Amino acid sequence: MTTEDFRPEKKITTFYPPQRVLMGPGPSDTHSRVLAAMARPTLGHLDPVFSEMMDEIKGLLRYSFQTNNMMTFSVSGPGSVGMEMCFVNMIVPGDKVVVCRNGVFGGRMIENVERHGGVAVVVDDDWGKPVDPQKVEDTLKQNPDAKILAFVHAETSTGALSDAKTLCEIARRYDCLTIADTVTSLGGSPIYVDEWGIDAIYSGSQKCLSCPPGLSPVSFSERVTDLVKNRQDKVHSWFMDLNQLLGYWGSSTRTYHHTAPTNALYALHESLVMLAEEGLEHAWARHERNHHALKAGFATMGMSFLVDEQYRLPQLNSVYVPEGVNEAEVRSRLLKEYSLEIGAGLGAFAGKVWRFGLMGSSSKVENVLFCLNALECVLSDLGLKVERGAAASAAHQYYAANPMS
Ligand SMILES: *Cc1c(COP(=O)(O)O)cnc(C)c1O
Prior knowledge:
Blueprint: E1 21-23, H1 32-38, H2 48-65, E2 71-76, H3 79-90, E3 96-101, H4 104-115, E4 119-124, H5 133-142, E5 146-152, E6 154-155, E7 160-161, H6 164-173, E8 177-181, H7 193-196, E9 200-202, E10 215-220, H8 222-229, H9 242-250, H10 262-278, H11 280-300, E11 316-320, H12 327-338, E12 340-344, E13 353-357, H13 365-381, H14 390-401
Parallel strand pairs: 1-12, 3-4, 3-5, 5-8, 8-9
Antiparallel strand pairs: 2-10, 6-7, 9-10, 11-13, 12-13
Helix pairs in contact: 1-10, 2-10, 5-6, 11-13, 11-14, 12-13, 13-14
């Protein structure tokens, strides 16, 4: 330790984070009900009362995923752990996996396949476009030995939604299991795990579920649990081995596997209760409605979307930065002056687009109006010609013409 690190004159005391409005690619704002749930007394992770709550989480997740899968629970770790959990359990070294890449997260899936000894066959689509089902079909035709098809339902790096239902149909015809990344879609866009026949699905707590980050809801079909049970080799991860986790999340007599993040699970429980109270269809419609209002506001500032209308995610809006504007300066002023966080572009779109999240409890009327007004103020301060008040007014017009049923 250098003397630089140890500064006795800097007295470290309680950390009080500022109150932000989170409208980036996640995390989203945590609802006060969810924050309050986290502050309740910690229980032992084998306490029967805690087990009851875990069972309720499983039931609520089945509703959220629209599945009857027995193996539906929450992995202790962020969305990336849910991703890795699917690949490490389902890939036997040497397996061929078709991976669709149309953004950052498809690229991470390829990493996962290769690190777990699989052979990745990549179907590339341009960033900002959805996965092309025809290309997937052609690739599966050419690779009849492929075992798994993996794709990202909602690409957070661009805001493109892919047709999970069609992709699963194709996979089934070629006798492939499916892995779907729904980190950004769960709670924000329709997902029907059983109807679409998704075999392995993972999500994250901090996007449209509006929980703090750190938990990954997952669900596995019987086809997957059978595959994992019958594997000749041991799953190449102790922590993520589904067979072992079955004993903790799967049965009524719980055995110790790892210490569950109790208070984080109270938060997930509360957010899922809120989602069930609202109703899935209503939550999806709310995300749509706020997206259209935001879009109406952007149009008044001449800002256009990266993704074609029919593939746009309502919860992740990628829009081009107006000509001549320093995008990083706008983001930093929004944060400093308005305590509003938005996201930057990634990859080839770095410096070219902003990503506006309207996820979970961040997807609300007041955030849309606040964000449009703040953006207008900053852009006009920077010398851009914008008609003050026009954006929020356009959003309001949309809201007035499209009341929530
Ligand atoms: C955020 C995200 C992840 C990763 O989740 P973490 O909780 O950050 O690990 C994976 N896939 C998609 C599509 C995401 O948006």
